[in-house]
Structures are given as C-alpha cells and as structure tokens.
Write a structure and sequence with these properties.
Length: about 150
C-alpha cells in the first residue's frame, strides 16, 4: 500500500476522527454560548482547538469550555483561562479533561491525550466578561455509539 493513503485528511481522520469547523464568532457575551451540538448518541472528543481571529479586548476575562448534556449536569471540559488581550492567531486547546484551558500567543497549543466522552447536548464557551473579540473553533471526534455525531450550532 502506498504511503500516500495516510497523508493529510486521511491521516488526521484515522488518528482523530471526523473534523468539524465552526466559523469565527464574537465571544462578547459574558455568559455561556453553545458552539457545537452532540446529537443522536454520545461521541468521543479527540481535540478542540480555538484560534483568535480578532484580538480579544483588554481586561480580565476568565474563559472556559463546558459540556452541557440534554439530561444531567453541565461539566467543565477545560477550566478558566484569563484571555485578557489575547492576540490575533492565539491558539486555545484542552490538555486534559477538567484542567485549565491552554492559551498561547499564536505559536502552538495542545490537544488532549485521551478522548473525552460527551453525552447528547452541547459544547460551549463561557466568558466572565462582555469583552469584544472573535474565535473560530475546530473539533475532532469519533462516535462512541452508532449515529453519534457533532454539528455546528
């Protein structure tokens, strides 16, 4: 078999599953904002990466990622990171379930080493303050049960 089969999209899909991109969106809510839906059945989140597309406004702004199931209690996938004045190109990632969200100035970020199982519901971002700026998000996932998938809100 040619090694070409495992290049680019095919390699990413084999390692991380399906990829879903959400267009950039303003984060100036000061509250929870849904980013992705989990529908039909649970999924395994293999990565979630955000990229700042419009610099985030100065001033303290704790930001976290939360999974909110249709039935049950919401849980933080990544706890608070102060996103004060993060520059365009800054990358956000989840290093481990429940740990602080990682943010680095445009150079690199991390993805979780172990998949995170998500129930049917939503994954969203919570910001503490109403600050301007935009972030685009990408996730990779695999269905845990037949039919499980994610969609953009």
């Amino acid at each position: 078999m040619s090694d070409r089969y495992f290049k680019g999209r095919a390699l990413r899909r084999a390692m991380l599953g399906a990829k879903l991109d959400r267009d950039t969106a303003d984060v100036s809510t000061g509250a929870y904002k849904s980013l992705f839906n989990i529908i039909n059945a649970p999924v395994m989140l293999t990565s979630m990466v955000g990229e700042v597309t419009t610099a985030l406004q100065s001033g303290a702004n704790n930001t976290k990622l939360t999974a909110t199931p249709t039935t049950g209690t919401a849980v933080d996938l990544a706890s608070n990171l102060d996103t004060v004045s993060d520059e365009k190109g800054c990358l956000f990632g989840i290093s481990a379930y429940g740990s602080a969200m990682v943010g680095t100035n445009a150079g690199a970020t991390v993805i979780t080493a172990k998949p995170i199982v998500l129930q049917i519901g939503t994954v969203g971002i919570t910001t503490a303050s109403d600050k301007s700026g935009s972030i685009k998000w990408s996730v990779t996932y695999m269905p845990l049960e037949d039919g499980g998938e994610m969609t953009v809100v």
